Amino acid sequence: MAEPGPDVKSQMRLEFIRRFRAKTKLAAPALWISLALAAAHSPAQAEESFIPNLFDPHQRIEAPDHAALKPIRFLTADDYPPFEFIGADGALTGFNIDVARALCRELKINCTIQPRRWDNLLPALTARDGDAIIASLKENAASRQAARFTAPYYLTPARFMALAVNAPLDVRPEALREARIGVGAGSAHAAFLQRFFPHSMIKAFDDQPQLTAALRAGQIDLAFGDGVSFARWMNEPSAQNCCRFVGGPFLEPEFFGEGVRIAVRPEDDKLRLALNWALKRLDEKGVMGELYLKYFPIGIY
């Protein structure tokens, strides 16, 4: 079968994002869309960074009344690079920090960004110590009890990782029969493999250092896990350019969530809608793409 052309690949990617945006429940068709994306990644494309567009270009979001907006007090953490961390100059920096600042410029308001302990973010929001949380917080049953969420501004895909010296691999389930795949013990990634890759030899590891050590030692053929964590590790000097992503992203909401969002108090719906408008504007202007490439030189998608 001939390799799909760029236009076909773009349509495949857009179809996946369209279905993801519609919050398709996990089913075999959703899996095969991910696998189609995986198959569409040729070795030449491995160096390219695919940035998904999370906003429907045809969707109209009403602009907020800028004069009525108040300064936003963002709450965040400071120990999760590259999203939020203390830089060499002692200043708070990171992807989330830059997104917050860009949002405030777009809304033409002043903002503050206050670092807190991760476990104190939602309580601080409830206590009105801040107005919004931007700290890679995922929407789930627990967080929905205390907050409402904006549209997602990035996704957390699962990825396969292999040794860079190995030939490209076909990551469809039938091609990985009896392949040795390492994964974090008890993780959503392990559950995904068990459901859709039942004929592979799945080996569970207690943490990522054990998993990456096993891959480098040739004890497993592939590692499967969080694309963000893998990209961070591959970008470190200690990784020594040993490894690379193979195939495309897996983004099934049932296993990997529906993206990372900004949290506000339930009663602050006007603020939530204003942030949605600003996020869409930043996406349309290419600002979100620029920030993504700044902090993820090894693309997570």
Folded structure, characterized:
- The protein has 301 residues and is of the alpha/beta class.
- It has two domains: 6-40 and 157-256, Periplasmic binding protein-like II (D-Maltodextrin-Binding Protein, domain 2), CATH 3.40.190.10; 66-153 and 258-295, D-Maltodextrin-Binding Protein, domain 2 (3-Layer(aba) Sandwich), CATH 3.40.190.
- The chain contains ten helices and 13 strands.
- The chain has helices at 6-21, 28-40, 95-107, 121-126, 188-196, 208-216, 227-234, 253-256, 269-285, 287-295; strands at residues 72-76, 79-80, 84-86, 92-93, 111-115, 132-133, 148-149, 158-163, 180-184, 201-205, 222-226, 243-250, 263-264.
- The strands form three sheets. A five-stranded mixed beta sheet has the order 5-1-6-13-7. A five-stranded mixed beta sheet has the order 10-9-11-8-12, with helices on both faces.
- Helix 1 (6-21) runs antiparallel to helix 2 (28-40), helix 3 (95-107) crosses helix 9 and helix 3 (95-107) runs antiparallel to helix 10.
- The chain starts with 5 loop residues before the first helix and ends in a 6-residue tail after the last helix.
